[in-house]
Amino acid sequence: MKVHIINIGDEILIGQIINSNAATMANYLNEYGLAVEEMKTVSDQRESIQNAVGQALEVADIILMTGGLGPTKDDITKTTLAELLGLELAFHQASFDNIVRLFAEFGRQTDDRYKIQSFMPVGATVLINKVGTASGMWFEKNGKIVVSMPGVPREMQYLMQNEVLPRLKAKFQMPAIQHFTLQTMGKGETDLSDMLEKLETEQLPAHIKLAYLPDTILGKVRLRLTAKGQDTDLLKSELNTHISTMKNILGTLVFGEGDTSIEAEVGKLLRSQNLTLSTAESCTGGNIAKRLTSVAGSSQYFLGSVVAYSNPIKEQVLGVSKQTLDEYGAVSEACVKEMAVGARKLLNTDYAIAVSGIAGPDGGRPDKPVGTIWLAIANKEQVYSKKLQLGSDRNRNIEMTTSTALNLLRLLLIGQEIR
For residue 109, what pLDDT band results from cuts at 50, 70 and 90? Predict the structure, then answer.
């Protein structure tokens, strides 16, 4: 079954907004076993809309559209579709009643101006949008389905979940589909592929696919297994078997499942072991603390941070010796080790993470080029350190350093030997 998505809006084409609707819709459809064959964005022009829909009708079974259903003159999707499909418009009382209800909830009243939005194509199935004023429309022609929804993400999502997907499921025999995702950190997709080559070539059946999804900013790779068939329980059982194999092969490279983050997994480990953490950050500017505190309940284990951006603060607050700074500089193993020890003592925590480096895009020198970053983790017994040599992208360097530091702490917490 072929599905096409058409998003309408000049604001998308000129880059004024990001087209998040297409990704959200594709994700919904994927969960129902429907694969999107093509996505297209077109302008708020009658000819553009008609051409896009006309072309899609020639090859697609299902066409899902968003945008152009508002009350203003530039919203022409409804009239354009009616003209293309040979339908007249007529006042639709239920759509107007919905507008009246929504306005009343905000203490406002409607008038005849809002009736314009309630004229709908005769013959279409009207999809009442309970979270917005623009109703959706479901058309069927020659065995093809065309659905038009508002472009406001929240409203599109409501109609997809409550109207469109249930109708598609009732109308078509959809295949069962199951996904399982492992989150990994420590090796790139090429190395992971080498490690999993035997699994892919000899063990995975044709109806189960493995996808490598690298995140070059956060420094992780998601491994997603997708199984398609008719028996959901059988697919789940098969996935569990192959996931277990992957975990055995990859070992501690796997830090979590599903959509979990490295900061969430570190938080679970700290909480389960009743341990506390602090940070001393220079080049990351508090980003490690930000990522840690993005997790609900992090106050149970994360006590605080010192953003020591200048050398005097490293000395006066964290206790880094002037001799260390003079001899080795702030971007050095010696400095971050003293920062970590100082932060742990100052904030009285079981562990402390410290980072210092040259995030870029400038500030490097021959012996310490841009992207040179040192990190350290201290507990009461020992201080562990690691040198990173990254690129010149400042944001990526900050996020990559944060992820690497958190992953190093995770490995320590699970008893992994650090080299």
Answer: confident
